[in-house]
Amino acid sequence: MLRVENLSKHFGGTQALKDVNFEVKPKEIIGIIGPNGSGKSTLLHTITGIHKPDKGSIWYEDKNITSIPLEDRARLGIGRTFQNLRLFKRLTVWENMLIPAIQLKKSKKDMEEQASELLNLVNLTHLKNEQAQNLSIGQQRLLEFIRAMMLDSKIVLLDEPTAGFHPNMIQTFIDTLLELNRRGKTFVIIEHNIPAIMEVSTKLIAIAAGEVLMSGNPEEVHSDAKVVEAYLG
């Protein structure tokens, strides 16, 4: 579904990514872990078109998308969320949900049914008429997560989705993610919350200093000596 080949990226004299390779298959949940500054967010930015790689290629559904604009990648079915919340803070929760779907030219009925179901999944229905800025940080992150689903993206890249969550909210996020995955969504997730990423990932990728240290079974990656030294230790 998504394939990254020999992806490299420099910022001045700093190498943010070095020959990164991995593949995402349909309905997988790929977790990406690594210390701060390891290149995780740069990797997502490069896949989605915010950064242009210095070397390597990105393939989506057998199409080389390395040079196409961010907007075109989104239209192909690649969605994402960001570390820094990008909600319309003065609009209501309901309005935030409907805005992304308008560009897809869905019927009003379909948009509203989808928005209602997603809000119900994350227990935000009672706040649908509240301005987004009045929600807690955790609630805002849940809103941004389900708002991304309104675009009907086939694969969604999540950058630190549980940052700022109350512990009780983490389970809501996990349950929602797994339910959407059962419905066919594919996810790539950057996350520092190791218990959460271990619970949801079908495959784990550990990176440090812009390089992939190991990828594969989450338990094996989690316990690998190189990973423990670079990140968990």
UniProtKB/TrEMBL annotation:
A GO cellular-component term linked to this record: plasma membrane
InterPro entries (alphabetical): AAA+_ATPase, ABC_AA/LPS_Transport, ABC_transporter-like_ATP-bd, P-loop_NTPase
Full protein name: ATP-binding cassette domain-containing protein
Alphabetical list of Pfam families matching this protein: ABC_tran
Keyword annotations: ATP-binding, Nucleotide-binding, Transport
SUPFAM superfamilies assigned to the protein according to its UniProt record, in alphabetical order: P-loop containing nucleoside triphosphate hydrolases
GO molecular function: ATP binding; ATP hydrolysis activity
Residue ranges occupied by any ABC transporter domain in the UniProt entry: 2-230
Record organism: Aquibacillus halophilus
Keyword Transcription annotated: no
